[in-house]
Amino acid sequence: MISLGKLAILLVLQDETEEALLRQRSNVLGYRIYKGKVGSMDSAKIFAAVETAAKREGFISSNYREEHALYHSILEAYQGICRGHSGLGNVMRSAGLLFCIARGPRTPGNQDDGDWIAVTMYGYMGAPMKGFEHEVLGLGMNPI
What we know:
- By secondary structure, the chain is of the alpha+beta class.
- It has one domain (4-143): Hut operon positive regulatory protein HutP (3-Layer(aba) Sandwich), CATH 3.40.1510.10.
- Helices cover 39% and strands 29% of the residues.
- A 4-stranded antiparallel β-sheet has the order 1-2-3-4, with helices on both faces.
- Helix 3 packs across helix 4 (64-81).
- The radius of gyration is 15 Å and the shape is globular.
């Protein structure tokens, strides 16, 4: 069995071949998933990229509850990659990230719990010079 958070983490880490298998498995389990890329020294651009993808792909409706759940999932993932510190450009750090959005029950078949949304971010962060970066990973998850 694969949980929503684990699925979001695995998807953001997979190469294309492994990703295709994971996508097939996630569909059978009732999860919706999306994977994208973003790179910036501006945290607002990172938030906007994930939020825009979630809206464009139909992961959330335009209502407060769903937008709020998405925002906090993005914020938690972002805090994970920033090690609890907020802000990139203001401290001269840049990020090149893959992100994943996943929606569904926390565990397959557990419809009593309602839908949750998970956001993961994985990639590199560091000084805006090649060779001065390190890997980062963050996960945020909230009920819809």
